[in-house]
Amino acid sequence: MKTVIRKMQDQTVGQGLWKTLAREGWQFCEGLTREESDGYSRRQEPCLVITDSPEGAEYARGRDLTCLAYEPLDGPFRFYGVDMVAQDLDELNGEFLNLVWKRHCGIPWRIAVTKRLILRESVLEDLDEFYSLYQGEGMTDYIPDMPQDREQERRDMAHYIKQVYGLYNYGLWTVVERMSGQVVGRAGLEHSQDPESGEPVLELGYLIGRPWQRQGYGTEAAVASASYAFRTAGIDKLYLFIHPGNEASLRVSERLTDIFGKNKIRVILLAPEKKPEKKTR
């Protein structure tokens, strides 16, 4: 059962959200015992505290429950150490609450589902698959190699999952083949820099393992990533940095500009001798 614990001092707030959640089958309560809270954790059932007070946030922390804090612009409190802050509860719904709960529990978000692929947030268990992908013939001709120190990369990846996904709700994701469940690549959005202006930009990146190339998977993953960026994350423009010899990526970029337009997709060709450096993740 999906449950919301309402710890609201202002009982007039959130009426639209409560109605929406009731229609979606959520139940409401004013509190849980520690045993009941532990039961939700063991069963992996969504349970969130929604509050407009520091006391409510402390209640959630004391029981390791997901906490969504209501913080209007003119409100008396500023919340820290909660899972999410909202300034208008009535704009939310159960799907959003479920995502906030997943973030608290470390459950990867499913970003997109296409005809043949699933894009989801990466998990540490993907790391060995990534190393295998990068060892394929020609895989690192135009992209950085995976680091030699696998344990340090595991620590870096754990930090990335916690900090980048949690802060931005986007990043570099894992690409899975729907039919087989096999990890076949990576795709997503990374912070980069415009080489001309030096301004920070968002780069769209994609990589498909050697056995699954020449099947259109790269285009499928890139289009899904761009769609998420523009339609869900509210991003205005994406950059692609491509080595001029990377003909496969050039074909993908052409498809992207055909779909989204050159005002949203900017393609920059790198110097022929330049190989991108590994970004922090």
Automatic annotation (TrEMBL):
InterPro entries with a match to the protein in the record: Acyl_CoA_acyltransferase, GNAT_dom, N-acetyltransferase
Highest taxon, organism lineage: Bacteria
Pfam families to which the protein is assigned, alphabetical: Acetyltransf_3
Boundaries of every N-acetyltransferase domain copy: 117-281
PROSITE patterns: GNAT (PS51186)
GO molecular function annotation: acyltransferase activity, transferring groups other than amino-acyl groups
Name this protein carries in UniProt: GNAT family N-acetyltransferase
Gene source species: Candidatus Limivivens intestinipullorum
